[in-house]
Amino acid sequence: MATMKDVARLAGVSIATVSATVNRSAFVSPELRRRVTEAIHELGYAPDGVARSLKRGRTQLVGLIVADITNPFFTELVHVIEAAIQDAGYSVLLCDTDENFEKERDYLRILRTHRVDGVILAPTGQSGDYAQFQSLEERLPLVLVDRALAELNADTVTVDNFAAAFEVTAHLLDLGHRDVATIAGPEHLTSGQERLRGFRTALEQQGVPLRENFVRSGSFREEEAMAAALDLLQGPGRPSAIFAANSHMMIGVMRAISQLRLNCPKDVSVVGIDDFPWANAFTPRLTVVRQPVAEMGSAAVKLLLDRRGDGAERPPVHQVLKPTLVIRDSCARVRPA
Amino acid sequence: MATMKDVARLAGVSIATVSATVNRSAFVSPELRRRVTEAIHELGYAPDGVARSLKRGRTQLVGLIVADITNPFFTELVHVIEAAIQDAGYSVLLCDTDENFEKERDYLRILRTHRVDGVILAPTGQSGDYAQFQSLEERLPLVLVDRALAELNADTVTVDNFAAAFEVTAHLLDLGHRDVATIAGPEHLTSGQERLRGFRTALEQQGVPLRENFVRSGSFREEEAMAAALDLLQGPGRPSAIFAANSHMMIGVMRAISQLRLNCPKDVSVVGIDDFPWANAFTPRLTVVRQPVAEMGSAAVKLLLDRRGDGAERPPVHQVLKPTLVIRDSCARVRPA
DNA sequence: GCGCTTTAGCGGAACGTTTAGCTAATCGTT
DNA sequence: AACGATTAGCTAAACGTTCCGCTAAAGCGC
Predict the structure, then answer these.
(1) Percent of chain A whose predicted confidence (pLDDT) is above 90
(2) Average pLDDT of span B26-37
(3) Strand order of the sheet with strand B269-273?
(4) B36 beta carbon to strand D: under 7 Å
(5) Fewest CB within 10 A of the end CB: N or C in chain A?
(6) Residues 6+ away with beta carbon under 8 Å from A89
(7) Interface test mutation site (partner B, options A94, A97, A120, A261, max chain B beta carbons within 10 A)
(8) Is the pTM of this model over 0.85?
(9) Which residues in chain B have their CB less than 8 angstroms from residue A83's CB?
């Protein structure tokens, strides 16, 4: 592979002049510029990003760590972030942790070794797990998306999970539902906690009692949610509505309903958090709370890039975006008993 | 950030010894090893991958270029490939081309600049577009997935698209359908061509005539497929079954059906290519041909890694995997007229 | 005690850039 | 004509590793 030295020799100039030509970093006379570009084409020269990174001290690489790219929320997030990063002249090193904290730690180490210029992280670990990263995060611009972590004072971009759960639960109550169950997310994640809190608060505000066995806690995964829904729906006094804390779990609930040959929304209403591209393709079209994924992605990228140069030392910013309720066909009005 | 020099100074050894310790590339006495590892911990030293890459001539980076990560087939593919690459000690540079050939070309240039050790590419361009890459591909291990390109003699991993379309069409015919339509993929992609050919051949073999206006060509995108399905279903002599050439398009068809207040499978049967996680969550559960995504991913990674060192000069391998028909509820038997 | 081999550990030259100096040539001013 | 000011383009020193080849000490047989 041709190097600057080869180009310089062929063009009869010094490598400094080649560098100046390639980077437009200094004036080069038209004549030399012509000879250099000619030589570049002749040799098929392309600058070596590795050497350049070593010298410049930055790699134009950004690490993107997500919990599970198979989750449509993250798929979309990766999609928009990749595009934005690319636009800004960086590239994305993708890391999928499979909701596994060990992996996440390994990835952070690897990203550090690759000397990425920044990291966008959708953390999967618990609060407390991250104490060890505090020193790391001082040097490495870090933006947390989707889930916040108190102990890292990094920039964060989240949605108002409390509001999301509150709104969707209120919708259920408005329709007359009183026997409302939830399949909640993991308690160690702020997103899981907030959604459960929003659910509880909505019920309290309306004075609707909550049977404790109507709160099932899950793992944001489909299988467990399906099992929980099966149990819920076959148990005594089954709920008239179920609130699933994310889209995977919502799918699990729908499968349980289908397996029991029940009808949604006639027999049971279902709501969930996270819209996804197929939510309105089937019957019933699903009522959900949509997170503003595109905004989250561009906000995260903007915050990250903002840490370059001067902005490096500003205090961390915590951006909280508003979700929106999307009413479709998976909830029915309850006729008063 | 601490460097080897700092570690060496603190441990009272040369940087060569630090290197030998870190890489286990030469014998280091227990005493020195202890002092070195101690210094490493004390300073929080982590090797600089950039400098290492420059010296070693390889980056442990693999470029992964997909047409559209939002397509569940590619989502899954990215998921399995990322895991396999990671396992092998490499990292993934993700590139999403949005089915845009210009972008794809840019990405290839960027990946080249980053000196990736190899590229896995799901190409979106037409045959002929890639002539310019022939020189590139000589030096850069390249594996094509999903879609083959005649002019690049790179390794390829594809599924038997002809068989997939043939099988699923035959299934429709077995159920008694005679008015069968297809919404085909782009003709410039081998996957699009082969699927259409399989569809046609199945009809021919059974002597079922095909009305030419029952062949709509699309772009592998949902909106256009929906428009085509709307037109197909509202036109005179509507088909009793529709074959969609990928999952996006299948969704488009389902939305059209839902919008027209028709019932699937009672009014119209639907089949598609590509299974996806939600295909069996709703009513009707969708009958599809499943591509062996996991096998495709691991095959691609294996082929790529195989090009390292000695295998560099072996002739290209073309691996063709078999799809499997997954029968669910979106197809009904047609009662004889 | 002398040569011989063995080997732990070190010095230093790369790898391909960027960039801070520097040189020498050109130019304007007096 | 002599002087400084300006500037196009060059030289060379980094950046942080890896690894070849060397030194010098140790081990060994005689």
Answers:
(1) 69
(2) 93
(3) B215-217, B180-184, B241-244, B269-273, B287-290, B324-326
(4) no
(5) C
(6) A60
(7) A94
(8) yes
(9) 96, 98
